[in-house]
Amino acid sequence: MPDPDWYTSGLPHIWLPYSQMKIAPPPLAACSTQGSQIELEDGRTLTDGVAAWWTACHGYNHPHIRACAEQQLARMPHVMFGGMVHEPALRLASRLTALLPGDLDHVFYTDSGSVAVEVALKMAIQYRINRGETGRTRLLSFKGGYHGDTLATMAICDPEEGMHHLFAGVMPSQYVVDLPRDASSIAAFEAFLATHADTITAIVVEPLIQGAGGMLFHSPDVLRTLRRAADKYGLLLILDEIFTGFGRTGSMFACDQADIVPDIITLSKALTGGTVALAATVARRHIYETFLSDNPEHALMHGPTFMANPFACACANASLDLFENEPRLEQVAALETALREQLEPCRKLPGVRDVRVMGATGVVEMEKIDDPATLRTRFIAEGAWIRPFRNIVYLTPAFTITNDELRRLTDAIHRVLSA
Ligand SMILES: *Cc1c(COP(=O)(O)O)cnc(C)c1O
C-alpha cells in the first residue's frame, strides 16, 4: 500500500525525538488506537507494550475518559489560570492531595514532566532564598536517573545518558552520585553529605524504578535512607514519580511502599490516563508556607500559558474515577505475576543478563544491544510495539491489557531474543 500523501509530503518537515535523522528508519504511520492496539495506516495492527511512553494506563480510548473529555471540550476547552480557577482543576487538586501521603497539600500545574521537575527545583531553591538561607543552591541526584530534557533537568540526569559533556558550561553543574543501596554506597553517600550538605538544597530521586535511565530497580529501604539523610542534614526530598506514579510499581505511588513522605513530588505521564499532556508539582505545607509573606518577591515566579488546562484536568479526573471504580491495582498485581512467569524463561537465553519485574514493569536486561533499531523492526514484524533502548527490552503495558495480548508480547520477546 503506498504511503498516504500527508506522510510523504509532511515527513521531510518533521524532527523526531532522540533520533539521528540521517539514518533513523522511517517512522510508522499510526491511524487509530483502541485498548492495547495501535492500528497503522497500512492496515497492520500492533499490540502496544509501552502504553504510549508509560502514559496510557487504562488502555487507549477508554469510554469513560472519552465521555468526560467530550463534555469538557463542549463546555470549556481552555481558560487562563491567572486570577481565575475552574472546577476540573480544583477537583483534581483535592483528589490528588487526598491520595498523596502526609501533608502534600499544594498543587502547582504545568504541562509536561520536565517542567514539573523544573518547578520542583525552583521551589527548592527559592525555599532557601525565602528563608534567608544562603549558599544552599545545589541539587543532589543519582546515577541512572532521568528527570527530563530541559537544561536544568538534564543537569540532574545520569551524566552519560544526559550527555552532560555536550552541554558542559551551559548547563548548571550539580552533584550526581551513586544511590545508597548497600553498605559501601551508604557509607560513601554519608561521607559525601558530611562535606557537601551545606551547599545543597534538595535530593531528587525517582523512587523504586529509575525509568528512562534503564529500568533500574531499588528497594524501599533506599528511599527510607534518603528520607533519614534529608532529615539529618536539613535537605528537601523531591520524589520524581512521573514514571512510577499511578500504579506502575504496584502501589498508587512508589513512596507508599517505603512509607515515607517527600517534601515535593512530581507527577505526569499517567496523570490523564495517556490522553493529553498535564503535570503537577505537589508540595508539603511547610514548603508552601515559606512562600507566604508580605514580600511579593517571595511568590513562586512560574506560570505556563496552558497550566491547569481544563480539558486535561477533566481527563485526569476521569482517570482517577477509573482507579476508584475499576480494579486497577489488582490488575497490576496480576500483571506482575504474569510478567514474572512469562519473562522468566528469557533468563536462559544467550546474552541475557537479568530479568526483573516490579508491578506492571517487566525488564529483560541484555549484556548489550548492538542495534536497537533492528530489534525494534523484528518486534514490529511480530506485531508488537516494543522499544528496546540501551541494553534493555521492557514492557510497561496498559493495566487493562488482556492475557492474550500480554502473551503475544512476551512470546515476541522470547522469539526475537532467541533468534
Ligand atoms: C518522562 C519523565 C520525565 C519528563 O517528562 P516529559 O513529559 O517528557 O517532559 C521526568 N521524569 C521522569 C521520571 C520521567 O519518566
Automatic annotation (TrEMBL):
Q: Where is this protein localized, as stated in its record?
A: Cytoplasm
* Keyword flag Coiled coil: no
Q: Which InterPro entries would you find in this protein's record?
A: Aminotrans_3, Aminotrans_3_PPA_site, BioA, PyrdxlP-dep_Trfase, PyrdxlP-dep_Trfase_major, PyrdxlP-dep_Trfase_small
Q: Does the keyword Iron apply?
A: no
Q: Which GO terms describe its cellular component?
A: cytoplasm
Role description: Catalyzes the transfer of the alpha-amino group from S-adenosyl-L-methionine (SAM) to 7-keto-8-aminopelargonic acid (KAPA) to form 7,8-diaminopelargonic acid (DAPA). It is the only aminotransferase known to utilize SAM as an amino donor.
Q: How does it assemble?
A: Homodimer.
The identity of this protein, by name, is Adenosylmethionine-8-amino-7-oxononanoate aminotransferase
Query: What organism does the record attribute this protein to?
Result: Acetobacter oeni
The gene behind this protein is: bioA
